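Give me the 3D structure for biotin--[biotin carboxyl-carrier protein] ligase.
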Amino acid sequence: MDSRLTIVDVTGSTNDDLLEAGKQGAPHGTGLAARAQTAGRGRRGHKWDSTVGNLLLSLVLRPCVNPAKFSGLAAVSGLAVLEALEKQGLANEIRLKWPNDLVARGRKLGGILVEAARDNEGKPFAVCGIGVNVNYAPQEVPDGGLPAIGLSDLNESVPAVDVLLKEVYHTVVNAVDAWADLLDAMKENTGPLAPVHGEYVTHLNWIGERVTARSPAGDELARGIFQTVDDFGRACIETEDGLRSFHFEEASLRPLSE
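Predicted structure for biotin--[biotin carboxyl-carrier protein] ligase (258 residues):
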């Protein structure tokens, strides 16, 4: 399968490159990694610092599920990255932050960006971009974001980035295939997170803690106890006025200091 994973020294954005490749029919599991990116990006158009020494990987995914269920890919991929780091003995302090980040010690370790599209034949596909700080933690903090941390800050010995790349690549492809098989066997109205729901919630940060939900513009939408994420990927917060649910496009969460 490594023949499907290409590593280049530098590119603009691995996600952009694979979105174009996907439109041209690149198969499921096509992977592209870069030592550095000049135009890396994260969720909501934020710039992703893509300095040499970190893991920068994108994959073309064509799971055999209803395209409406592609919204589950970020959670599945996040769990897979965590599993890959666990295999390397690196995940002791790492948690997932809804909807698409990896965090440790209250800082951001990595992020996942899933973009759905259709190829030139009209067939749906997605590109999953994965960025993990390995040997370098960016100093710049995005508006309302968490400061960064790297794997080398958490561990005395970290494998070479190429070793981590291959582990993450294989684990994500295998996890997406397993998720698609399980989801395909469930009822049509089942939420996209159903096959991994229990595991995902177990690894989530701030469950049971007080949080604030903020809009993309930074406005507070709600505050209360972060109860869970439902099968459809919505964050469920118990507020003074009852339970409220937010889709990942509507809100982001931050801990509420006492």
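Residues 2-197 form a domain with the BirA Bifunctional Protein; domain 2 fold (CATH 3.30.930.10). Let me know if you want a second pass.
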